[in-house]
Amino acid sequence: MKNETKCIHAGYQPKNGESRMIPIIQSTTFKYDTSEDMGKLFDLEASGYFYTRLQNPTNDYVAAKIASLEGGTAAMLTSSGQAANFFAVFNIASCGDHVVASSSIYGGTFNLFNVTMRKMGIEFTFISPDATDEEIKAAFKPNTKCLFGETIANPALTVLDIERWAKVAHENGVPLIIDNTFATPINCRPFEWGADIVTHSTTKYMDGHDSAVGGCIVDSGKFDWMKYADKFPGLCTPDESYHGITYATKFGKEGAFITKCTAQLMRDFGSIQAPMNAYFLNLGLESLPLRMKQHCANGQKVAEFLASNKNVEWVNYPGLEGNKYYDLAKKYMPDGTCGVVSFGVKGGRVAAEKFMKHLKLAMIATHVADARTCVLHPASATHRQLTDEELIACGVGPDMIRFSCGIENADDIIADIQQALDNI
Ligand SMILES: *Cc1c(COP(=O)(O)O)cnc(C)c1O
Q: Which of 104, 137, 193, 271 is the most buried (most CB within 10 A)?
């Protein structure tokens, strides 16, 4: 099936007389006839449900749909994108280990890695998304456990050369983890380019309606953990907290990563997505291909309009000819990138603040990537504690406006921008 069809049908096929829509199993627990039946579940000898903190059928239907969309073998939902990225990395890196990550990533992920996970004893080296093969290689250490980057980075809109990064990761015996939030599997499938694990903040385009925070981790099933057994003892040696199971032998390349992540990390950290939120996520997934088309078409039209406007100083959109990442965007996302455009208006910070005040349709929000057009001036919101010099150093200039095109009619979005520019 193609992805448009999978968005409707993958993950859940009703049997005779069952509901067409996925059922919301709003239940914490599941009943068994005998203690032996339940014992088999605890030993991971049989598959089934016993407690929603570990697994829930509604979540599993939706996770299976996302696994299918990405072309992976297994997936799990998490309560947020933050939990997804934390679990994906912590599943293979622990105290005393090291991770190499692109410096061009979501601010929340950067804090998670650079502050909180450092406190847990994991070391991070951040490198440019444009790093050469030699520069990436130079960042590796004997205790490096994975390489991490974003397909299209939020908010810098850099595009990662996934195929090249995967090659360098594999030459060093570690998996490449890709946060595919902005592209979604409709526009890019990182596994086709060699990535091993994909993560999502489903809060963005996948849900798409500003209604449910969530995350997802998908495994390609391709990384051979046993080949590097010394590097990944958590997957390749018995788990004493789980009756001595060795995940890589019991569940193979296809299932080891997600099973360990569920049995250990979800069990201990409890960041499960609520079944009701998984239901909302599934509703969003059904129309994802249609919405992504409109987000991308609107992003392209808005970027082209801004690029030709005399009151605009600069425009950053990977789909814009002449953009530094145009060729990479065409390679990895031939059908379009995303609906997020960043730009600066002439007159710097003061003009940017005036511009924001005059917008009528575009709503000021610390969110991106949903049906409603929204806009943020990071220098006066998320990044307001930074000085102008610090803003420039982290790639978020004082004049930068992050504009997330919704799925309204492009003419209305452009008319709103036009009148706000006229009113500066
Ligand atoms: C928003 C976002 C996250 C964090 O996701 P939450 O659902 O807000 O926890 C992670 N990565 C990217 C690229 C994001 O845009």
A: 104
